[in-house]
Design goal:
Chain lengths: 107, 449
């Protein structure tokens, strides 16, 4: 499978283009490309330091958020009901090729 | 302790400094220990633009891996016999992080700025980072060395344990801490007969309050786990393998497998033998600098002063391993570090998550928020009226607000904090004023006083 292309807007508003490899979660793709995603729980939906905003179109292609994910997100800085996701919970999928991801503010 | 300012760099033209720092000296930053913290230092240095060499030395073979799954996912039936790696092999290549795996570091020659490896080779360092973590505290009673007696710290430990935990096996767990209880849950799920022997009178007594302990005791009991409290193990008996565990009051527990989960000991020997200041942990300042300005330490192996309440502490959690690593990477590259994070920890037992923000102390006031019988509740720990820590059980809604409140040091209204309908952030004393029923015919002149 080929990589997905990804556009990332960081917390300063700068744009980065990167490759998302099939064996990475979105969090891993961000973290391994040096974006400031702490991921302090290692991707187990516990810390919310991997919170990102997706565009509505991409968001709608994804399944429901788990209860843990939702509870963490609702309390997060800048929560968007139809945009916020924990990037560690997003596996690679072709449907997400070419999306733009915005890093949520830290709190 | 040494003066934390002693090694602050002299002011230098920022660009010149940046250039000198990033181009990197001849010798690499050498990191001893490729656990959560060591790997995070390596990744953090590159993320912060460090161009010099990075050498990661690790005693264990293989790709550095995550520890939390060792007592959780990995033990489950049908789960793959491997723990998630911290970073994929390719990451180390891409980031030019050199690694030696399977050779321990034996000693540090501070004057020569070099480390000696167990294969006799030497590696020079520009800066040394000691990230050697901790090891499971060894059981010292007679019989502790018998086959069938296990500790759990490494991937090999976990695989051995997984092999032993078969349906019907009688499993005695010594110590009702996080690891003992996570293993108890995994063993019960596999159909083992599980007995937990605990010296104190409740589970997780070091880290949480009685209401939380009791909630988890009941949870385990519903899954068939048996607890024996006030149990002091004196012997492990058996001819060629562990067969029985004996306690001080003369009770004998039949066991095919014995797991000792009695805490951890920092791997500080390397530092102590090199003359670095240690006191149950390598002493470091807020940047992770030890008593030698060229040597840093980070993660489980360190002891430091809490930036939040000034307590001397050793923290054994992923959050701290990563946060301290970032401070080390920031200091080595001469960059500002992130604001200190509120420490936090999580455990999952029988699918129920306990997540703690902050560090509780036994004399904190305990406020139960919500109904434990409902399966989801929180416990707020107040110290001098301010939130010191919060446990969330079976739900994470209070977790982030808790971290905010601890950081801000707001005074809380205990009655509001106990009411789960009031958001935690509004249970402060200022919130109390806002939430109080509006006075009728309020007189603006008196309302302000
Ligand atoms: C089973 C288990 C479950 C856990 N679950 C959780 C959890 O759910 N949440 C949580 O927050 N924390 C959890 N922890 C704690 C967490 O794993 C530790 O806090 C974390 O691993 C500390 O990271 P570290 O890098 O300081 O040490 P470690 O991860 O222990 O890494 C230290 C490394 O240094 C190496 N080393 C030591 N001495 C030498 C030497 N002389 N030469 C070369 N290499 C050396 C070791 O082999 C080791 O790989 C758990 C721990 C265990 C064991
Ligand atoms: S990495 Fe912690 S929630 Fe995603």
């Amino acid at each position: 499978m080929s990589n997905n292309k990804l556009t990332v807007i960081d917390r300063e508003g700068s744009t980065h283009r990167l490759e998302w490899e099939p064996d990475q979660t979105l969090m891993e793709a961000l973290r391994d490309n040096d974006l400031p995603v702490l991921a302090s729980c290692g991707g187990t939906a516990s810390c919310a330091t991997c919170h990102v905003f997706l565009e509505r179109e991409a968001f709608d292609t994804l399944g429901e958020r788990s209860e843990d994910e939702l509870e963490l997100l609702v309390e997060a800085e800048g929560y968007q009901a139809c945009g916020s996701r924990l990037s560690c919970q997003l596996d690679f999928s072709r449907e997400l090729n070419g999306i733009t991801v915005t890093l949520a503010p830290e709190d | 302790m040494h003066d934390p300012e002693a090694n602050t760099r002299k002011p230098m033209n920022r660009e010149a400094m940046k250039h000198e720092l990033m181009a990197g000296p001849a010798a690499p930053v050498v990191i001893v220990g490729a656990g959560h913290s060591g790997v995070a230092v390596a990744a953090g240095l590159r993320a912060r633009g460090w161009e010099g060499g990075i050498l990661l030395l690790e005693a264990e073979k293989g790709t550095p891996y995550e520890r939390p799954p060792l007592s959780k996912e990995l033990l489950k039936d049908g789960a793959p016999d491997e723990s998630a790696v911290l970073r994929k092999e390719k990451f180390y290549q891409d980031k030019r992080i050199d690694r030696v795996a399977g050779i321990a570091v034996d000693s540090v020659d501070r004057a020569g700025r070099t480390v000696l490896l167990s294969d006799g080779s030497r590696r020079d360092y520009h800066r040394l980072v000691i990230a050697t973590g901790s090891r499971a505290r060894a059981l010292t009673v007679p019989g502790a060395a018998l086959p069938g007696v296990q500790a759990l710290r490494t991937r090999d430990d976990a695989l051995e344990l997984k092999r032993l935990l078969v349906a019907g096996a009688r499993v005695a767990i010594i110590g009702a801490g996080y690891i003992g209880l996570e293993v108890a849950a995994a063993a019960a799920a596999k159909g083992c007969e599980v007995t937990v022997l605990e010296f104190q009178d409740r589970v997780m007594s070091r880290v949480t309050s009685a209401p939380v302990s009791h909630h988890f005791e009941q949870l385990h009991q519903r899954h068939g786990v048996r607890f024996v409290f006030s149990a002091a193990v004196t012997d492990i008996e058996g001819d060629h393998r562990a067969e029985r565990v004996v306690t001080a009051d003369g009770h004998v527990f039949q066991a095919d497998v014995v797991l000792a989960g009695i805490g951890v000991v920092p791997n500080q020997e390397l530092a102590a033998e090199a003359g670095l200041e240690c006191r149950d942990g390598i002493l470091v300042d807020g940047h992770g600098v030890t008593s030698d300005p060229a040597i840093y330490a980070t993660g489980d192996v360190t002891r430091f002063t809490s930036p939040i309440d000034g307590a001397s502490q050793r923290l054994e959690c992923i959050q701290n391993a990563q946060a301290q690593a970032d401070r080390v990477a920031a200091h080595i590259t001469g960059q500002p570090a992130a604001v200190p994070e509120i420490p936090w920890f999580w455990t999952v037992q029988h699918g129920v998550r306990l997540q703690t923000a902050g560090v509780r102390r036994p004399d904190d006031d305990v406020i139960v928020r919500g109904n434990p019988a409902g399966g989801s509740f929180s416990v707020v720990y107040l110290r001098d009226g301010r939130v010191a820590a919060v446990d969330t059980i079976g739900g994470l809604a209070d977790f982030r607000p808790a971290r905010k409140l601890i950081a801000r040091g707001d005074r809380m209204d205990p009655a509001l904090a106990a009411d789960p309908r009031v958001p935690l952030t509004e249970a402060t004393l200022t919130g109390a004023v806002l939430n109080a029923p509006a006075p009728i015919h309020a007189d603006p002149a008196t309302a302000r006083s």
